[in-house]
Amino acid sequence: MQALVERIRSQAVHLGNGLIGVDSFINHQVDPHLITEMGHALAQAFVEAKVPEITRIVTAEVSGISLAFTTAQAMGIPMVFARKHRPKTMQDDHFAAHTRSYTHGKTVTLRIAAPYLQAHDRVLIIDDFLATGDTIMALAEFVQLSGAALCGIGCAIEKPFEKGRDRLSELRVPIVTLARVELIDQRLHVTD
């Protein structure tokens, strides 16, 4: 997606150790026009991939929410996000999975209340980054635990050098990313 590629080229920052800062338009400050365009692009990509009858989008708190929301809005379906902290309002009937947060440097437990992910659901996982695949694998675990069908994975930015796509290949679903960022000589190289 050219608009995202251009924004990464002009505003993304390589923070070292493979971390890429996109705080000015995705992860901290959100550009609503760009996020909406990205959500529509992901929705269209799954239509073109002939992924039928999606009923639910799943993402992780916090950075995936805006992109998952706009994708769900474009598809006219609900979106549910996995929470990093169990609120007092969450009943015992929930799914839990652990993932390693690369940006926070620790393991976190994600949770989704069981009523929001049912066996009849056909699910897309949407997230901001496809890096190591850890978070997406935890979200896929929720889909499997619920008995729902995982139908695809969509991410704004892929970091191929982290090998996440290879790890996710065992899930045997279409994987769509809107931009790819490689590190060559410690410089960002961006393609769509």
TrEMBL record:
GO terms for molecular function: xanthine phosphoribosyltransferase activity. This is Xanthine phosphoribosyltransferase. InterPro entries: PRTase-like, PRTase_dom, Pur/Pyrimidine_PRTase, Xanthine_PRibTrfase. Its EC number is 2.4.2.22. It comes from Entotheonella factor. Keywords: Cytoplasm, Glycosyltransferase, Purine salvage, Transferase. One of its GO terms (biological process) is purine ribonucleoside salvage. NCBIfam families: PRK09219.1, XPRTase. Residues 53-170 form the Phosphoribosyltransferase domain. Signal peptide: none annotated.
